[in-house]
Amino acid sequence: MIQTEVKTVSPNVYQVHVTVAQAEYDKIYASMMQKITTKAKMPGFRPGKTPLNVIKSQFGPKLHEDTVSEIIQTHYVASIEKSGLTPALQPLLDVPAVQPANGFEFTLKVTTWPTVEVAPLDQLSFDETTITVDDADVQSVIDRLLKSQVSFEIVPERVSENGDQLHIDFCGSIDGEEFEGGKGDDVPLVLGEGRFISGFEEQLLGKLAGDEVMVEVTFPADYQAAHLAGKSASFDTTVKSVAKPLHAANEEELAKMLKFDDAAALRADAVVRLEDEAVDASFSTTRLAALDALVEANDIALPDALIEEDMKASTRRILENMKQQGMEPDPSMLDNDDFRVEVRDRSEKGLKLSVLLQKIREGAKLQLEEAAVDAEIDRQSAQYPEEQREQYKVWLRGQKEQIGVLRDRLLERLCITFIVAQAATNKVSKALSVWQQEQEQS
After folding, report:
1. Sequence-distant (≥ 6) Cβ neighbours of residue 424 within 8 angstroms
2. What is the mean pLDDT of the chain?
3. What number is the average pLDDT over the span 122-138?
4. CB 302 within 8 A of CB 348
5. How far is CA 373 from CA 131, 273, 275, in A?
6. Which fold is adopted by the domain 2-111?
7. 3-state secondary structure of 351
8. What residue spans of 149-262 are helical by DSSP H?
9. How is the chain split into domains, by residue range?
10. What are phi and psi for residue 213, nearest 5 degrees?
11. DSSP string, 271-313
């Protein structure tokens, strides 16, 4: 039997004081003693026959520790449930060193989510943006493709120049020893793109197919492969072919290059892709405006422990993303005041929105329909060739974590759509090209 007493430490932070009756302590203590007595091998006594006073003298501290551990395991969850609190974080346990003469006591520090009343949604005011696609947007895509799309034609006896595609074999060595990752066969390389280490491509200018070149370079001091950083290397390189770039002279040639029937089909595809982008841009822009307005209209005080925990998780994600991109995080970054302020601001805003959106979903009884999940999976599968789409759908549905993220995103979208419908929005329309320019500038 336990007794609990709840005290408010600060907003949304509570202390749950738990008292366990002496009788229960004694019962568990006796059970622990019986276990030790059965197993203990003490000099001069047969197993299981050691007197209790000897057991207490020899194992007293351990008996107490085991008893305390058992009591806490038995009553930890029950204490929280009896307190009526719903923890937002793992409660912090404290066992006082000095215990009362009768019974046993421990405390739990419980941090809860704040209780909020969402400001009326019809009082929110923000821009509801619609991004449109016009002829200029389509032409911009065509012009960009005309410049960027290129095929290559091998030309015998051609002297290589920037823009040409070479196929090369190479084998790198440092101080005469080959190193891991320094070898390649029939590797395509477009001169001037800067794909290889600085200085490599420049030494292949003015070469012919069949030329053998010893390329000498030095890896940057901050090179992602630490065992190569700052070291000089030699690459024994053979130029296998030199091909000149070919650009489409007009839309019809461009369409053929990109495997479309004609220029009209190419433009139709561009329109579909641009309109998809415009729909996403419309929602993302309106979403940000709606969320900013929601946070601004609702003053929420969050417990520091909740913010700090989210900051730790955010920092871990940032560091993991940096490592996945081949960057080695600078430890001093974590102690930078500007970095911590930025992470804290993001965490605080994210937590507030989490509370507010959950409250709105519950109040409006918004539920995600399976049809919406199916439609999103279909939409994502459309980026793959038709013969691969069903395989992709089966694979995606088997990815529990990704499906969970997808559901969360769709549920948030449902909530944002509801907020926009309730709010007093200012209708704004702008061309996709204007929106893209704004994104680049920001």
Report:
1. 122, 123, 124, 125
2. 89
3. 95
4. yes
5. 25, 21, 21
6. Alpha-Beta Plaits (3.30.70)
7. helix
8. 251-257
9. 2-111, 121-139+254-441, 150-246
10. -130, 135
11. HHHHHHHHHHHHHHHHHHHHHHHHHHH---PPPHHHHHHHHHH
Q: Which residues contact 87 (CB under 8 A, 6 or more apart)?
A: 80, 110, 111, 112
Would the CATH topology of 2-111 be identical to that of 121-139+254-441? Answer: no
Contact 185, 204 (CB under 8 A): no
* Structural element, H or E, at residue 426: strand 424-431
Contacts of 29 (CB under 8 A, 6+ apart): 63, 64, 67
Pick among 2.40.50.100, 1.10.10.60, 3.40.309.10, 1.10.3120.10: CATH of 121-139+254-441: 1.10.3120.10
pLDDT digits (tens, 9 = 90+) for 68-99: 888 888 888 889 999 999 999 999 999 888 78
361-395: pLDDT as tens digits: 999 999 999 999 999 999 999 889 889 999 999 99
Query: Which of 263, 270, 277, 276 lies closest to 138, judged by CA?
Result: 270
Q: Which helix (H) or strand (E) holds 391?
A: helix 389-397
**Beta strands per DSSP E along 21-136:** 92-94, 104-111, 125-132
Residue appearing with tokens 């013969």? 387
Is the domain 150-246 a CATH 3.10.50.40 member?
yes
Structure tokens at 187: 């590797």
For the chain, how far is it from start to end, CA to CA, in angstroms? Answer: 61
Query: Distance between CA 202 and CA 185 in Å, rounded?
Result: 19
